[in-house]
């Protein structure tokens, strides 16, 4: 092996990327696991979408901010590719390509990293982990609730108290459409509201149509109880959308009610519009209770997104959780502890034998590492420093006498156990940790 | 929602990328899970490396073929980035940056997708899944064995019979170095052997040094029993490497022996050289038994790779398994079956109540989906078509009488169960599936 010093080599990952190790990696792995478990027992099936997609896929409906911040490049054959900035577009494409023959509802989950070229901040990275649920083929609120409650079960399990902010963009879209505001302007106004630039949003809208601006200003300060009255007030402007608005108002109300019945706080907030241009009705966000009330995810209806990609109209709803934010929010929460066993083999020639003992420990499901060192004192000090709970010591004497020395590293208590009794002894000892 | 037909839009993912759904996704998820489980109980800790790295990281030691086939592009700030073609380089970088203070051995695992711009073939994709184990800080063969046997436990668990091909590039490297062959030529010769172009490799070597070519030709046809005699024969040429070769010969022999003791066939094959330029000694590959004897992964010693990135010398060994190849090899093997429950709610107003029943099913750990339809016949036919095992039916009558109708969809047997007895009934029914 040639050893070249690379003088200008930096050990840092590229800006905005992370090296996840230790507790940070353990917690993310724990979140991956629990999320997938709750998705599965709630009847969602896995999809593993490609990390690279054609740029075109995201061009249409991902929202202006996302488009600006995509990693885009040409491959060697000149294809314009993009590292996915979000997953729903891929899911819809894959649904249309492979899954539209399945009985409805089609319920899908994914855990996947996404990429956005944005200024890195605390809790915001250029590569980040999304866990998502999608329900295709359900018109009723039970579809929205099935996704939402599955995510809540997961958040409950990992000990993250949360509440819902709920809104419905069908009202925002309809009122602007009613006033003849072009879709691109609508997208831009909603983008500004999403960025908490309400004043700027209303101002820009006012430059196009001042009645629309007044109506919009009123809307984003509305309480849920006043929505029906608002629709009444603007019924001429909204005349083409009344049926849809009725359905969506009913959806919003029942979504909030049933979440409440299930023990989750859900508050209506018409200021919430979400950054993605494909939402068509109910939308919601998850906020962590306590501390910074960080938004840890969200979702909503995207009925008809299938048609953007040339497919038939499908009712669709879904959500995505930001696992990095969630990991930050549960900082300090520890995944279930596993006792750790160090198998110390003192003699070079007993390595093979020690691996047989290790297989026994593996079968028990305890965590073990094999460590070869001829000096027992040195080995035990390593074991303690590295935080092991139990040491199994295998030397020549132990081998000849068919025993294993078992040492509890926290109490210092040590016993010699017949090899064929070692399983029982370990199980017993570990149960006490 | 505006619905635009995108005329030129293709539903296919970019060339060489895959949309993994259904059984393909289920099996990969199952492999992710089981691999991580065996890694963890064998004392390996998770690392989640960034998907994007500086191109420089791979430039030095990944081997000529990999370098040619990387996805490389500039980000918006002009950084030359690469989608990782393999993971070990990242692990070594991360070890040097964050983990070198930890007590040895440092044992790490990862499951991550890699990217290579190659001609797609059956079982070879431009995005593919690697599962890896790395052991840093162990000089003895127990380090190699701990990684190897952990992978074997995983392969056993998923039902994949396998054997090992074992080689040791220290001999190939030393004999060529002894004859004064420059490292770049060595890399190229080994690359050709790796591509099964032995004749071309020997011929190109002969153009540089015909004695070296003779020695190399002999070496790649050697049996393990003859290695010591070979070293003797070339002891003048190898005089600078004798100690290292002795250690590596002992390692190879014991690696094969102990694997044999543990029940795994391991055969010496000096034709095996592996495509990565960083290997320094023992190397091995996993082959599936039966069928095409596909190579499903491999690994080896990469002592000192740390120094390439400016760090201190560390003993290191590791392996990576190709999960896509493994998924192909166990095609037909099914992950453990979970019975599926459809909760049919017949009345719009009972959706909230039905979600409470669903939570009970969730707590049991059974898989369930909520389905709202006012026509029971239609709902049951959907349930059967979609392959559910059990239906829980909740209508107005059931709600008022505080019962749930439980229907076994395979036998057609149907009972009415008191709501507070529903858990016991489901558990009992599911146990019989």
The count of DSSP E runs of length 2 or more, i.e. the number of strands of chain A, is 16
Integer average pLDDT of chain A:
92
From the N-terminal CA to the C-terminal CA of chain A, the straight-line distance is 44 Å
Largest interface: A-B, 120 and 120 residues
What strand line-up does the widest sheet of chain A have?
1-5-6-11-10-9-7-8
Give the overall form of chain A: elongated
Q: Would you give an account of this structure?
A:
The structure is a homodimer of 433-residue chains. Chain A has helices spanning 22-41, 55-59, 64-68, 88-99, 141-157, 169-178, 183-194, 198-208, 210-219, 227-233, 242-261, 305-308, 323-329, 351-364, 376-385, 396-400, 422-431; strands at 45-46, 52-54, 71-74, 80-83, 106-115, 127-136, 162-168, 266-268, 282-288, 295-301, 316-322, 340-345, 367-372, 390-394, 403-408, 414-418. With 433 residues, chain A is of the alpha+beta class. In chain A, a hairpin with a 6-residue loop joins strand 9 and strand 10. The model of chain A is unreliable at 1-7 (pLDDT under 50). In chain A, strands 1-5-6-11-10-9-7-8 form an 8-stranded mixed sheet, with helices on both faces. The first copy, chain A, contains 17 helices and 16 strands. In chain A, helix 5 (141-157) packs parallel to helix 11, helix 7 packs antiparallel against helix 8 (198-208) and helix 8 (198-208) runs antiparallel to helix 9. The interface between A and B is large, with 120 and 120 residues.
């Amino acid at each position: 092996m040639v050893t070249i010093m690379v003088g200008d080599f930096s050990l840092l990952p590229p800006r905005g990327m992370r090296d996840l190790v230790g507790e940070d990696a353990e917690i993310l792995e724990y979140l991956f696991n629990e999320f997938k478990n709750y998705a599965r027992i709630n009847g969602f099936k896995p999809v593993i979408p490609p990390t690279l997609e054609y740029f075109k896929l995201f061009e249409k409906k991902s929202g202006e901010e996302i488009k600006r911040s995509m990693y885009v490049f040409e491959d060697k054959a000149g294809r314009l590719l993009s590292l996915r900035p979000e997953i729903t577009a891929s899911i819809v494409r894959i649904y249309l390509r492979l899954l539209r023959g399945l009985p409805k509802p089609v319920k899908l989950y994914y855990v996947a990293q996404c990429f956005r070229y944005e200024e890195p901040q605390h809790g915001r990275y250029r590569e980040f982990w999304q866990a998502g649920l999608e329900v295709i083929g359900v018109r009723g609120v039970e579809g929205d609730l099935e996704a939402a409650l599955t995510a809540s079960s997961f958040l409950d399990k990992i000990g993250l108290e949360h509440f819902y902010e709920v809104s419905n963009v069908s009202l925002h879209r309809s009122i602007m459409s009613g006033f003849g505001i072009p879709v691109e302007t609508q997208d831009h106004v909603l983008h500004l509201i999403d960025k908490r630039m309400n004043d700027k949003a209303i101002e820009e809208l006012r430059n196009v149509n001042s009645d629309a601006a007044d109506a919009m200003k009123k809307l984003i300060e509305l309480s849920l109880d006043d929505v029906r009255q608002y629709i009444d007030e603007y019924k001429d402007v909204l005349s083409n959308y009344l049926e849809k608005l009725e359905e969506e108002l009913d959806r919003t109300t029942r979504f909030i009610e049933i979440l409440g019945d299930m023990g989750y706080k859900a508050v209506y907030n018409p200021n919430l519009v979400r950054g993605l241009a494909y939402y068509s009705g109910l939308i919601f966000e998850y906020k962590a209770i306590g501390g910074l009330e960080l938004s840890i995810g969200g979702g909503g209806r995207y009925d008809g997104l299938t048609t953007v990609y040339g497919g038939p109209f499908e009712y669709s709803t879904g959500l995505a959780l930001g696992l990095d934010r969630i990991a930050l929010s549960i900082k300090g929460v520890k995944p279930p502890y596993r006792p750790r066993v160090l198998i110390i083999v003192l003699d070079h020639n007993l390595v093979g034998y020690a691996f047989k003992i290790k297989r026994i420990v593996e079968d028990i499901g305890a965590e073990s590492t094999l460590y070869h060192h001829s000096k027992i004192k040195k080995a035990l000090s390593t074991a303690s420093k590295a935080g092991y709970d139990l040491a199994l010591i295998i030397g020549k004497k132990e081998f000849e006498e068919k025993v294993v020395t078992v040492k509890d590293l926290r109490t210092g208590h040590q016993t010699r156990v017949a090899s064929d009794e070692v399983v029982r002894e370990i199980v017993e000892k570990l149960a006490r940790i």
